[in-house]
Every structure is written in structure tokens, then in C-alpha cells.
Amino acid sequence: MRNFNNWIKSMAINDILMRIRQNKPPGAEMSVLDLCSGKGGDLLKWRKEQVDRLVCTDIARTSVELNEGRYKEMLNQASQEVRPQKIFKADFITADCTKQRLRDLYKDPELQFDLASCQFSFHYGFESHQQAKQMIQNACECLRPGGYFLGTTLDSNELVKRLRASEDMSFGNEVYRIEFETPNKTQLPLFGAKYNFYLEGVVDCPEFLVHFPLVEKMVAEYGMKLVYREPFADFFTEHIRKGDGRDLLGRMQALEPYPPAEEVNLVAKTSEAYTHARSYLDARQADKQNGWPSTDMKVGTLSKDEWEADSIYLVFAFQKVEETTTAPFPTSQVQAPTRKRPIIDPGANAEPSSKQTRTLF
Ligand SMILES: C[S@@+](CC[C@H](N)C(=O)[O-])C[C@H]1O[C@@H](n2cnc3c(N)ncnc32)[C@H](O)[C@@H]1O
Questions:
Q1: Which positions does UniProt annotate for S-adenosyl-L-methionine binding (predicted)?
Q2: Number of helices followed by number of strands (H, E) in the chain
């Protein structure tokens, strides 16, 4: 499942960087902000995508140090290659991106990014309105016109649907469990709707529901317009249908081959966990008997529990379609920028809202 999530991330990053490159003069510099970058799990992706500048930031000092260590190792290895490849310049910043204005911490405060990438982390920002605003400001304010804000996060609609269908304040299966800390399921706040997410038994920091219609309004204040917002399952189907990323699926071992090779254990222990894969293969077998060409005797899959866990995620992208000028303001007080002029497509419905209703879910 981790490999599958990584595949989604790689595909989304590759697709967005391609879109960015199409609109840049050949050879123009490509800069990326990796927000909540963790231990540097995406460093190799930035190298493969040949970005020129990278800023990584995370709240956890040890993760930032590990990330920087990996980067230095990468530089060192590259310098020993016969034909040394150019590696991007990178800065590493330890900061809480929900409470600090990152721009104040950049070596060059005028730095502009083509892409702000926030992978599996956006949900940490929604503890309060102020924190969400700060995180969004950090993601959007330094984007170049035409730049993108790309992320993966949990799909709150799906979470709320599952919560309301459950008997108590929690739901899940063998792979994941989500326990809400809010008092009831009918009145969930827009900010601070807190839950604990256990993935394969491990709990990370508490997370918060991200109400997407509100996000669209908040980012619109930075001239950002929604490009897409897709559950992982749809994103996967769409790319596979187009024939994109099949090789990468194999290389990343993003799916389990079913049936497994001899002496290989499947992730899930029971055969019920793979009945969908069995049915698919049986149907292909029937096609073959009816004279249809079919060679699929193995299929790549995830167990049912893993699919169920994965289907709570979504991937989203916003693009900066209007220039904005940021009014100077104290770091502790997040203030929206003033709009300047449309640069791409003004986005008919992208009206910023000053009113916020207490509960919307
Ligand atoms: C699930 S990890 C994702 C790491 C990386 N983006 C990836 O895709 O591998 C979430 C990361 O968000 C970081 N994080 C959580 N809250 C944060 C905050 N308020 N400011 C900055 N980073 C934060 C954590 O320290 C952790 O490294």
C-alpha cells in the first residue's frame, strides 16, 4: 500500500512538472517547495525530474536533518560518477508551517516556486482557522504566476460518510483505523475536527478534517484555481486507462501480483481478501474459452482492506491563475493578499469568502 501511495505521488508530481515545463522557456529554472517534506522520501523524485532548486521544510528537526544528510550523500555520490550529473541546490528548514511564515525563513525572501508540494500532510494544518490560513499562505504566496500547489490528503467526505455509517466514533479494518475525538458525528466543526489515524497499527500525529469547498475559497485569495481533485482510485484508473505509469507500477512494486509466485506470501492472510482479483481472472479465463484473446493469467492488486484504506485519500492540484501582491504583515497575523490581475483564466466561481459557517459537514 505504501508503494502504491508512492506511485500516486510520483505520477502526480511528474504530471504537474510536465504541465509546468510546457509553459516555460526551454532551460528555464524549476524551483520546488516541499512542504512537510519528512525524511526526504521525495528527494530522488526531485532529482529524477531534474528540478534546479528545492526548499524542504518540516516541523520535525530530526527528519529535516536526515533529509539534509541524504541530500549531501546524493551530492557526494553524484560527484564520484564518471559523468557527474548536475544536482539541484537545496535548503532545509525546520519550522511549523501552520504557525510560521516560511518566506521569512528563506535565504532569499524573493524566491519564487513553480511548485509547492505538500504530500500526505495538508490535514495537519486544519486544527484552527489561523493555522490553515498560515499553511495555505506558505503553500501559495511564493508561487510564480502559473505555478501549482499539489497535494495528497485524506478525503473528508469519505471520512464523514464512513463515520456516519459506523456505530461509534471510529471505523476501519485490519489495515487502518480512524478514531474521531469530536463529541458527535452530526456537528463536525470546519476546523479542529480531530481524529487519530492508525495505519498498520502505527499512529502519527493527530489529524484534522479538511473541508475542501472551504480550501477552494481560501486558496482563491492567492489567485489559485482548482485544477483537479481526485480520489486515489479515480486517479489510478484514469492514468492506467491512458496507459501511463504501467512500467513504474511494476518497478515500484506498487501492486501485488495475484496469484503470488510459489513461496511468496500475500500481504493479507485470507483468500477472501483477494476475491476481486480471483473474479477478474476467472472472467478473463472465460473470455479466453469463448475465443476472446486474453493472456492475463496474473493481475496486480491490493487486498480488499488495503483498497478500503487507500480509498480515503485524494490528490489535488491548484494553479495560480491570478497575480497577487502580498501586503506586508506581521508573521503572527495572517492576512490575505490583495488581487492584482488575472494571468490565465479568472475562474468564474473563485470568489473569496469572508463569512465562515461553523459546521458544514
Ligand atoms: C506522513 S509524513 C509525509 C512526509 C512526506 N511529505 C512524504 O510524502 O513522504 C507527514 C510529515 O508532516 C510533518 N508535519 C506535521 N505537522 C507539521 C507542521 N505543522 N509543520 C511542518 N511539518 C509538519 C511531519 O513531521 C511529517 O514529516
A1: 9, 36, 58, 96, 119, 124
A2: 10, 16
What 3-state class would DSSP assign to 275? helix
Whole-prediction pTM value?
0.86
Cis before residue 352, ω within 30 degrees of 0? no
Domain ranges, residue 291: 256-301
Q: What is the CATH number of the domain that holds 72?
A: 3.40.50.150
Question: Over pLDDT 90: what percentage of the chain?
Answer: 61
Q: Is the CB of 169 under 6 A from ligand 1?
A: no
- Whether 263 is in a domain gets the answer yes
38 lines ligand 1 (CB under 6 A): yes
Secondary structure in 3-state letters for 40-85: CCCHHHHHHCCCCEEEEEECCHHHHHHHHHHHHHHHHHHHCCCCCC
Work out whether strand 338-342 and strand 322-325 pair parallel, antiparallel, or are unpaired: antiparallel
Residue 182 near residue 348, CB atoms below 8 Å:
no
Q: Say whether both 292 and 213 belong to one domain.
A: no
Same domain, yes or no: 226 and 290: no
pLDDT value for 269: 75
3-state secondary structure of 116: strand
CA of 260 to the centre of ligand 1 (A): 34
What's the chain's average pLDDT?
Answer: 86
